[in-house]
Amino acid sequence: MATSLLALLDDIASVLDDVSVLTKVAAKKTAGVLGDDLALNAQQVTGVRADRELPVVWAVAKGSMLNKAILVPAALAISAFAPWAVTPLLMLGGAFLCYEGFEKLAHKFLHSKHEEGAGKVTLQQAAADPAIDLVAVEKDKIKGAVRTDFILSAEIIAITLGTVQQSPFGTQVAVMVGIAALMTVGVYGLVAGIVKLDDAGLYLSKRGGAQAALGRGILAAAPWLMKGLSVAGTAAMFLVGGGILTHGVAVLHHGIEEMAHATAIWPGGPFWEAITPALANAAVGVVAGAVVLAAVTLVKKLRS
Q1: Residue 167 dihedral angles phi and psi, to the nearest 5°
Q2: Where exactly are the structural domains of the chain?
Q3: What's the Cα-to-Cα distance from 89 to each of 39, 85, 163, 302, rounded to whole Å?
Q4: Pairing with 131, which of 74, 77, 198, 244 sits 20 to 30 Å away (CA)?
Q5: pLDDT tens-digit map of 101-118
Q6: 52-111, pLDDT tens digit by residue?
């Protein structure tokens, strides 16, 4: 009996260890989406009244939890009954990441400054005009943010599924649920902090002394933080999306590995050998994003 109990405890410890390791791996792979997720969701609440920012973030967070409650069982069902579909789904997710990243780079060429300015003016009018229903505007923002979250959550779940596909079903469930909970709490906790940075900075700036200096520093840094998150998220999209695509195409994957090994003889070889795969994945991501964006743009023009 004691031996059986020890064996059971050992099995449980082994499973927990596997879950811990796979969760860390999955978290690293989904970090690329996380940066963009933060930037997108923080931007979604711009234009909302200050006293409604946190309620809006909470409403979107609840929508995100519902999204993942749908996506996680769907992903587990695919893994159990149609495992052959995992790789194509990952490839589609990788292509979408590359497309989204390249669309951001090309945004200033595809959308005029007049269009961007019109959106900002609409938000300003909604905040200033008492005749405009701010509740309706707020609900539209929440719906848009939840739709965006569904796409990003699907990418996170697909990447995680690819990481744990060969693991036992119980481990898959634990890792998928863990990543879903971690990403939801982490993303929307940070979003809540980001959107209230200006309020915190303003409060501290009125305190005087060192606190006032800190508050002014926060107010000055907040816009740069948003820009930094957006840039990091875009770069990560190419790295993660390109990496998914190259791993799905054996010729590309082996070619990049051989290229990385060849750089080992260069001065500073270990550095180049380590960074070459990332640069190659990013390059593949940029090219793939450009191809998909061109195809999408062409289809839109033909339809219109």
Answers
A1: -85, 160
A2: 2-303
A3: 25, 6, 13, 27
A4: 198
A5: 888 888 766 665 555 555
A6: 667 777 888 888 899 999 999 998 898 888 888 888 888 888 888 888 888 888 876 666
